[in-house]
Amino acid sequence: MIASSTDSVSTFDERGLLVVGPGVLGRLVATLWHEQFPTAHVVAESRTPASHGALRSTLPFLELRLAQASAVNVPRFRHVVFCAPPSQNEDYVGAVRRAVEQYWSGAESPEDTATFIFTSSVGVYREPTTPATVLREDSPVVTEPTEPGASPSALKLLACEEAVRAANGTVLRLAGLYNLERGPHRFWLSQGKVRGDPEGLISLVSYHDAARAVVAALQQPQLHGETLVVVDGQPLSRRQICEIARQHPLYANYSMPTFEDDQASTKSRPPGKRFDATQSRAKLGQFKYDFESFAAFMEQMAGREDVVSGHHARMDRA
Q1: Minimal CA–CA distance to 231: which of 273, 211, 212, 203?
Q2: Hey, which of 21, 165, 176, 280 has its CA 20 to 30 A from 199?
Q3: Is residue 170 part of a domain?
Q4: What is the pLDDT of residues 126-148, one digit of tens each?
């Protein structure tokens, strides 16, 4: 039986959406939802008002509210997306639990599309020990802070995932996010020196496709208590990511960074994560990525400077 709570259920339309964390991903989710359902009531919640001015100018359809003003006696939404990052929030797990318990109406039945989406990370998976290892949705995750690849952030995300699934919400584990001006490529090329194995694999997904996957998940019936993986399926090494980025005019004048990693440590280091997300794509309605790889994204962006300097660039900097 799917849990349902009708206390103070929002009287807004059936397509009403609450986005907790209107960063780059949250803004894209809100925009795509508004484009698909122009009359839907879309609310964005943030911890501070720092971004509200930019949000009002770029996304005038959004209603904005602060988290501290939303703790009690708030309308519940049938569709909730929690995509705020765990950084700078000491009670992150508590914030996710409160969102599930106080913001979401719950689903009336297994066929109901009322959905709570929590965006997690593929960083929660245990590091593979061989290059041939392919990870899937149910592959082992880190359990101890001393495990290779484990981090306080990963353990915090796993605690949040457990709370969301217990309430029949849905978890999307996202690969490394990027757009033209954000992502590992920008960081590494800007730094000039990078600590890490240049041949270590990194799994990626564009912000654009990650947002599309969230919107697809919001509309799937029977997608309750699930854990899905959102990844483009073409992992690249750190070196490849930098080389591909430098083919775009925006990064053509950047030099390749120096990878500070000695051979001895590299030999004992995990090869990186590669995924088979076939099952997740099917559960998202045979989801197809607009950008099947980082290389495809950069190639398309190189020929669309009007888009880069217009809508997308404004969204990224808002």
Answers
A1: 203
A2: 280
A3: yes
A4: 998 888 899 999 999 999 888 87
